[in-house]
């Protein structure tokens, strides 16, 4: 997932409106590439992108204290604003394509950066040329990253005919079908927390990962062990009855018991 920003002098706004920037989703790939090159060559415009890989997104969205996509998006936008400010750019007005409620998002941004005026709107990438330029920078960066993607996995059948990456694209659905694995899920190109993945794993293998770590939530005796069940590419809080004793802190996982292994946190 890629977020982008474009910045320029307020006096350049009228000229910016003549550069034919538009919502990247309405442009063909060739048009986006051409506009992006012209954007990069324009000394009156600056731009930045924030690239978040699928593995990082999955880690944030599937951990015990989950971070949803809205919050990830907000944090990315605020990170870009901070980066531009730290470069010494004096930001007077910032236009943002909303994620979630526009007014709540605007309030959140204003509290974070009280000296900046924020305009947050739905479909801002089709309303404000500066946001259109940012969407082009983000989209082209994403497309190029996919074209040059190098798989961590080594299966011979992997291919990059991924389609657009949107849920309704038949090519994207076919790619997911071609690359699903009943135990390991998908290659790291895929965000495992993506709802579109779930239908592909109705018959997936349930895997229980046994852990000898102290439960992060804490217990009365402070020594409980826990087990996590990986099911349908997501973590669940359910335990099988036969595992309750081992996970309650009264006993140890059989794997560790059989090998007389103890958890060591400090070395002398």
Task: Write up what this structure looks like.
The chain folds into two domains: 2-148, Ribonuclease H-like superfamily/Ribonuclease H (Nucleotidyltransferase, domain 5, 2-Layer Sandwich), CATH 3.30.420.10; 155-201, Ribonuclease hii. Domain 2 (Arc Repressor Mutant, subunit A, Orthogonal Bundle). Helix content is 37%, strand content 16%. It has ten helices and seven strands. The protein has a three-stranded antiparallel β-sheet, with no helix packed on it. The chain is globular.
Structural topology:
Layout: E1 2-8, H1 13-16, H2 29-41, E2 45-51, H3 54-62, H4 69-86, E3 93-97, H5 102-112, E4 117-121, H6 124-127, H7 129-147, H8 170-179, E5 207-214, E6 225-231, E7 234-236, H9 244-247, H10 254-259
Parallel strand pairs: 3-4
Antiparallel strand pairs: 1-2, 5-6, 6-7
Helix pairs in contact: 2-7
Summarize this structure briefly.
With 268 residues, the chain is of the alpha+beta class. The protein has helices spanning 13-16, 29-41, 54-62, 69-86, 102-112, 124-127, 129-147, 170-179, 244-247, 254-259; strands at residues 2-8, 45-51, 93-97, 117-121, 207-214, 225-231, 234-236. It is globular.
Which terms summarize this structure?
Arc Repressor Mutant, subunit A, 268 residues, Nucleotidyltransferase, domain 5, 16% strand, RNase_H2_suA, three-stranded antiparallel β-sheet, endonuclease, single chain, 2 domains, two-stranded antiparallel sheet, 37% helix, alpha+beta
How many angstroms does the end-to-end distance come to? 44 Å
**Which strand-content bin applies to the residues?**
15-25%
In CATH terms, what is the architecture of the largest domain? 2-Layer Sandwich
Number of strands: 7
Question: Could you say what the CATH topology of the largest domain is called?
Answer: Nucleotidyltransferase, domain 5
Percent helix, as a range, is 25-40%
Q: What order do the helices and strands follow?
A: EHHEHHEHEHHHEEEHH
The coarse overall form would be globular
**Overall pLDDT level:** 85
Superfamily (CATH H level) name of the largest domain: Ribonuclease H-like superfamily/Ribonuclease H
């Amino acid at each position: 997932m890629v977020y982008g920003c474009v910045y320029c002098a307020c006096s350049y706004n009228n000229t910016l409106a003549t550069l034919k920037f538009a919502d990247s989703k309405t442009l063909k790939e060739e048009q986006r590439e051409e506009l992006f090159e012209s954007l990069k060559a324009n000394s009156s415009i600056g731009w930045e992108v924030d690239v978040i890989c699928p593995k990082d997104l999955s880690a944030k969205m599937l951990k015990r204290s989950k971070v949803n996509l809205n919050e990830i998006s907000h944090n990315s936008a605020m990170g870009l604003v901070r980066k531009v400010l730290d470069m010494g750019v004096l930001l007077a007005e910032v236009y943002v394509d909303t994620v979630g409620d526009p007014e709540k998002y605007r309030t959140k941004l204003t509290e974070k950066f009280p000296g900046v005026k924020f305009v947050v709107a739905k479909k801002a990438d089709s309303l404000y040329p500066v946001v259109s330029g940012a969407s082009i920078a983000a989209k082209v960066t994403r497309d190029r990253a996919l074209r040059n993607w190098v798989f961590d996995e080594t299966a011979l059948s992997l291919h990059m005919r991924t389609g657009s990456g949107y849920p309704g694209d038949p090519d994207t659905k076919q790619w997911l079908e071609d690359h699903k694995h009943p135990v390991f899920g998908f290659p790291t190109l895929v965000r495992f927390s993506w709802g579109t993945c779930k239908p592909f794993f109705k018959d997936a293998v349930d895997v229980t990962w046994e852990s000898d770590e102290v439960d992060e939530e804490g217990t009365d005796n402070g020594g409980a062990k826990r087990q996590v069940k990986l099911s349908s590419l997501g973590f669940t809080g359910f335990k099988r009855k036969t595992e309750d004793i081992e996970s309650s802190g009264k006993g140890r996982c059989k794997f560790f018991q059989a090998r007389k292994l103890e958890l060591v946190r400090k070395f002398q």
